[in-house]
Specification:
157 residues; 6 helices; 64% helix
Length: 157
């Protein structure tokens, strides 16, 4: 490989935005600028607006500045959206715990109680666990879990 090719390959076209929550890194967003740039810069045939600057340098500087502004705007939206979604996720945790507690109060807390329930309904434990996870993941409110459990058997599977 020539020196020019090595230099071009070593330049990364990836921009990585690290996401932190309360000062702790929780992930990152990777963007491939070489794939993103053509979507941003549609007008490849336009010439540089200033004759006194080298077109390649102008394009390089413009690209860096545009990507820097894009990343700044993305970070603002990302943190706002992440904050909103984290609040919803915290509510999901509470909802799952409340639903699990309601199921425990209705059906029992031990495996023995669940096995007894299953035997009384001529089902297998897997049926109950499938019902339980359907119940947890369903967004609707269930007022009578025992009635839901009895009706659940009539659903086509």
């Amino acid at each position: 490989m020539s020196q020019t090719n090595i230099k071009k390959e070593s330049l990364s076209s990836e921009v990585r935005v690290f996401v932190e929550v309360d000062g702790n890194p929780v992930g990152c967003l990777n963007l491939d600028v070489n794939r993103l740039w053509p979507l941003i810069n549609h007008r490849k045939r336009d010439h540089v607006p200033v004759e006194w600057m080298d077109p390649a340098k102008f394009d390089s500087i413009m690209r860096a500045a545009v990507i820097k502004k894009l990343i700044a705007r993305l970070e603002t939206h990302l943190y706002r959206a992440l904050g909103d979604e984290m609040v919803k996720a915290e509510l999901d945790v509470e909802s799952f715990k409340l639903k699990a507690e309601a199921a425990a109060q209705t059906f029992g807390r031990t495996e023995t109680e669940i096995e007894k329930l299953v035997l009384e309904t001529d089902r297998v434990p897997l049926d109950f666990y499938s019902f339980f996870w359907d119940y947890l993941l369903d967004d609707r409110d269930v007022t009578d879990l025992k009635k839901e459990w009895k009706a659940w058997d009539t659903r086509p599977r």
